[in-house]
Amino acid sequence: MALLRLVITSAFIVLAATSSVHAEAEILDDGVTVETVEEDGYQTPQIDSKKAYLAEHFDDEEAFKKKWVKSETKKQGVDDTIAKYDGKWELQTPARRLLKDDFGLVLTTEAKHAAISALLNRPFVFSDKPLIVQYEVTMQEGQICGGAYLKLLSKGVNTRNDLKQFHDQTPYTIMFGPDKCGNDNKLHFIFKHQNPKNGTIEEKHAKKPTQRLDDIYKDKEPHLYTLIVRPDNTFTILVDNKEVNSGSLLEDFTPAVNPPEEIDDPNDKKPEDWDEREKIVDPTATKPEDWDEDAPAQIVDPNAVKPTGWLDNEPEMIPDPDAVKPSDWEEEMDGEWEAPLVDNPLCSSAPGCGEWKAPLIANPNYKGVWRAPLIPNPNYKGKWTPRRVPNPHYFNDEHPFRMTTITAVGFELWSMSPQLLFDNLIITDDEEVAAEWARQTYTLKRDRITSQAESLVERGLKFAGENPWVYAVVIIGSFIIVGFVAYMCCGPRTQDPEVEDVKKTDAVVEDDPHQSDEEREEEKTEESAEKEKQSKADLEGPDNTQESAPVIDTEGAGDGQRKRKPRKE
């Protein structure tokens, strides 16, 4: 077991050393940055304006003030005291600064309505190209209750004055993003569909994501939200570049885009003689004459016998004989004092005390209330359903992708948690453009977070996974370390023969050449004192007060003869 631990420890040492060398001598292959450096790893992202309907990085405050407009109106349908959109929006660096000179749009207030919006560079028309919406959200203080979604506003919002009037009832085409309150969290994808028959507008809600997304609301890290809606009516939702939801606009929304071709006839009524009872009580059944409904379910056991020694006249509980009435007890106020009850000690050694009663047992003659059996209903016609008729409101829209043109984007929010940070919003019709935008922004942040979180060993394991040859180095290095340690601990040893002789004999030897002069002088002083003490004892003679101790032969003990201390009688 010790050897196994040694091998494992050695492997970790070698792996850590390998990863350390790799981290210090970081090499950039094919332009891929392994570790982001705050000082020079980030530059404001650049994208061809012709490839994006909006590309907002929030790094340029002057450009932001020219493009984005805060709402100056009130929320509809709420009390005037809280209806105003007075939430505060500011451009700030993140609380956890990952990249130098990186700013985001921050909703700094809580429990206030806030709205801000911007016009697209040009309208997005749903025709033959996909719509890609992508942006980052960092819930810097987590989220208790509130949304962080955006709205793609429908045509009709065309000027800055229109943006000043942006509120909750402003027409939008798509709403997308996270929303949470308590334990209920959602990732919205709602689009508004226009009925081709009567022109009415109805919201269509996407099915729930295939996995729970609890961490995005509490880890306080940036997360990337991507929505892709394609001309073939399919959609995909990504969080941090991982798919969490996908499906069809025609099949995976509630209510469905297209109504059913047939509906229940609202004028059809169930006939009065329609019998839906599958079984009925047998009308010919009669209760047997020997059926006693009054017989009890339990009776006294006729075979029970009172146990010998049962104390009929002893109660189970008696007043405590040791109890004393409290000195402050006043019978006029407290009533007559009674000692508390305790278990009767006589009952502890007896089968029982008090009146003995035979136990109850199940009554073999008990049958309960008689009920007639059920039989098939001869008049049963089945479950009645109204007849189906053509749906007068039916239509078949095979192209729900062709939604209302988008002209602006906005955030219209209410949140119980402040410091919501939005960053790197892009609207495009090219998935690769959105991916490149993320590589210039979000990917750098994730790399920075990963490099801060990974320990030396974790980085070593990751490096080894990417470079299998490292495992060979680890194995060889581990065996070298184990072999060296084993040699030092268990290898052959040489012994000075003179030292062995000293251990085996009492012969006089020369002074130890490695012994200091002070140590030699100290030994000589101790020897002189011992000799003086011995001489004095010889002159004084034997001690007559004690019996002479027998001499014990200690040849080879190295200290001459030793005297055993006499026993006292």
What's the helix and strand layout?
Layout: H1 2-24, E1 52-56, H2 61-67, E2 68-70, H3 80-83, E3 89-92, E4 104-107, E5 113-124, E6 131-139, E7 145-147, E8 150-154, H4 160-164, E9 172-181, E10 184-194, E11 201-206, E12 222-229, E13 234-239, E14 242-248, E15 253-254, E16 262-264, E17 279-281, E18 298-300, E19 317-319, H5 331-334, E20 341-343, E21 360-362, E22 374-376, E23 388-390, E24 406-414, E25 420-428, H6 431-440, H7 442-453, H8 456-466, H9 469-490, H10 497-504, H11 517-540, E26 551-552, E27 562-563
Antiparallel strand pairs: 1-25, 2-5, 3-4, 4-25, 5-24, 6-12, 6-25, 7-9, 8-9, 8-24, 9-10, 10-11, 11-15, 12-13, 13-14, 16-23, 17-22, 18-21, 19-20, 26-27
Helix pairs in contact: 1-8, 1-9
Poorly predicted segments: 20-40, 497-509, 539-569
Largest sheet: 9 strands, antiparallel
Class derived from helix and strand content: alpha+beta
In total, how many beta strands? Answer: 27
Rounded mean pLDDT is: 82
Radius of gyration: 47 Å
Strand content: 15-25%
CATH topology of the domain at 52-263 and 399-452: Jelly Rolls
Distance between the termini: 58 Å
What percentage of residues falls in helices of 4 or more residues?
A: 10-25%
Shape: extended
Discrete helix count: 11
CATH class of the domain at 52-263 and 399-452: Mainly Beta
In the CATH hierarchy, the architecture of the domain at 52-263 and 399-452 is Sandwich
Family: Belongs to the calreticulin family.
GO cellular component, one term: endoplasmic reticulum membrane
Biased composition (Basic and acidic residues): 266-276, 500-539
Transmembrane segments: 469-490
